[in-house]
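Human: I wish I could look at a protein chain and see how it folds. This is the protein in question:
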Amino acid sequence: MALTIISLMKQVPLPSEMRMGDDGLMDRTKAKSIINIDCGYALEAGIQMKNDNPDAKLIVCSMGPPSFVVSLKKAISMGYDEAYLLSDRKLGGSDTYATGLAIATMLKHLGFGKGLNEDFIIVAGRQTSDGDTAHVPSQVAENLGIPQATFIEVASLTDGHIVAKRIIEGGYQMMKLPLPCTLSFTPTGIDPRRPSLSGAVKARKSEVKVFSITDINLSDKMIGLSGSPTIVAKVANIVSERAPIKMCEGHGEVELVASLIENIKSGKNTIEVKEKKAKKAKKKPEGFEDVDFRNGASGILTWAEVVNGKISRPSLELLTPARNLAADLDADTKVVTLIIGNGTDDLAKELIASGSDEVIVVNDERLEEYRILPFASIFAQVIKNINPEIALFAATTAGRELAPRIGVKVDGGVTADCTALEIGEHYDRKKKVRFYPILESRRPTYGESKLATILGFVTPQISTARAGTFEVPTLDESREGTVTSFTPELIEDDFVTEIIETVRGEGGLQNLFEADVIITGGRGTVGDEMQLVKDLAAALNKQGVNAEWAVSRPVVDEGLAEYARQIGQTGKTVRPKIYIAVGISGSVQHIAGMKESETIIAINHNSKETIFANADFGIVGDYEDVLPELIAKVNDGFTFGLEVK
């Protein structure tokens, strides 16, 4: 059977053109649309594979309104052979769970994923700019029952197997996957090509095959707003509470740096922040019936991800919202943490001291490193055994692919990248019922300009939490808890994906979360390959300040820094005491990862850059001039107002 390469593509609205509808939700009907950026890289990855396998067929698939035909024809003009669109009004309002099911059903209708000995590869973008969940590739893979690898930078087909480079915190993994499989690509690989003239002619003559849900035998009970396990309850604008910037004055770098030092001594500008009113208890309208959809489910399950023999910081952060949620639920609500690895028993004590009531330990020498298929199987088995009402994962590269795959296994939806988790209530005015208690998962969306509240009506209610958002709990060595050993049932097919090599660089994730000062270089600092940025961090460390350097996404794209150092929506979220942004324009995606910093200093030669609207202190000047002067002052003892112990 000839190889088929299937690219999943989505057309997305421009965030700048999104508007709030009368119902409080986002209206995308009048917004201009483009091919999702990550999907463009997946399209190119598919073409690259065909170049190495000339007999392969390239097909592109999408789900959405009839207007998506334009983008599908563009894919044909790039070199794809066939295009298919699943379009039906009944799909409107589908969450990622329903979307993954619908796309997988369409692929099965086309003859793929039926459990036969098939040679096909699914390529997709890592995530979409309008949702930023990174869920659908995992959900499609689980629905088809095939292995997957996400956050892929490059991949090749060699001797009937895929060899892929997967980006992880602190470095990368080289992986080997059998066919069929699903791969999701980061926007750091080979840039998408432009359509050729002959391709454009071919696209004009081609026909995009459009399916309805009836055509593919998909029930409307499983899709759309009514068939989705999660809903968007409301969307609110995100308003900055940072005071106007205090700009430094002077001629030349000496005066500008001297002005910065004086400004830091005198303090930031301030604004009057209205005190948030305490939430008033809602009075239940007459005639509403209380509904507890948990059906006996109880407790909160978290995952302790193990990296280099230690519990990752984001996994410990999870225990802060977990304990808060447990306090708002029934008095006997337990926080249970699952830890999977080899020889992890000693880590259970740290989890109990951090807030877990029970730790379930799975030890297997085959599980020393994270592997999605056996880990997803183990989680599904544990969920079946303990029946939790909530399951929480850190939104790391592993957590963002694992949670949605587990969601499909337990028939539940997942809310991604949350920055707030609370217990609330939901009124269904049509059915005249009040759902309580229910998990309110809040997450930034639409280019970080809006805050969406997502509700799930299937247990466990699954959410991933953005790393760096919650504080690590204070260790309490006096806490008591139980440690339980669990032996899962695993099969040979759970281990078909092979990890060839794992490379983790110095610095990276842990240091960025713990640093008091972070100096981040953007596109404007690539002239000296970030050397001055690194030198400033080194100078501060010599003074006894815990400092680290980081980058914005364009620098990672240039290959000058590892992904582990990227700050922003698709990188790390940090909250240091001092954040110094050098040569950074200030895109909303970058601001998302550093806006919680205590003090932000911006250095840029262009006074009109957006970064200055999101900083406390600013210097307009060339970094090649300003940073050497700043480094000299640090060498003389200046520490940005921080006390050195």
Summary: The first strand starts at residue 4 and ends at 8.
